[in-house]
Amino acid sequence: MKIGIAKLIEDLLLLGFKDVSQLDAGGTSYAVIPKFIIPAGSSADRIISLGVPAPADYPRNVAASMHVKADPHLFPFGNVPGIRNVVASPLGDEWQYWSYTFQIRVDNPTLELITQINEVFRKN
């Protein structure tokens, strides 16, 4: 059974995402979806790059963040209490780290994670 970044990338490809790649930064591996279409919210239909961190034991554990690369940035850096916390990303200046707590079950972890990521965009 695959775990970690290999599991996350395999699952994303099975869900139909194209050209998913691995990016390593700061001791963490990320699955990068280069042409992620935001489904709803104030940035609906924007095409971004989405970076999803993969702990070494994914899907047992999931990181409490997602990383967004958009030109221009979707939101300014900073904290809006109860809505979003956007700070610098270890992936580089073009990226933003969005802090969120994701809760997944192991039944279909990656689908659940993507569903929760879509909900983050829906609320913003």
Report the principal-axis shape: globular
- Give a count of the beta strands, DSSP E runs of length 2 or more: 7
Spatial ordering of strands, largest sheet: 1-2-3-4-7-6-5
Strand content: 25-35%
The number of distinct helices, counting runs of at least 4 residues, comes to: 2
SSE pattern: HEEEEEEEH
Largest sheet: 7 strands, antiparallel
Layout: helices, strands, pairs:
Elements lengths: L3 H11 L6 E5 L2 E10 L9 E8 L10 E5 L8 E3 L3 E5 L6 E5 L9 H15 L1
Antiparallel strand pairs: 1-2, 2-3, 3-4, 4-7, 5-6, 6-7
How would you describe this structure in keywords?
globular; single chain; 7 strands; 21% helix; alpha+beta; 124 residues
Describe the structure concisely for a colleague:
By secondary structure, the chain is an alpha+beta fold. The protein is built from 2 helices and 7 strands; from the N terminus they run αβββββββα.
Task: Please tell me about this protein's structure.
- The protein is α+β, with helices and mostly antiparallel strands and 124 residues long.
- The chain has one domain.
- Helices cover 21% and strands 33% of the residues.
- It has a seven-stranded antiparallel β-sheet.
- A hairpin with a 6-residue loop joins strand 6 and strand 7.
- The longest helix has 15 residues.
- The model has no long low-confidence stretch (mean pLDDT 94).
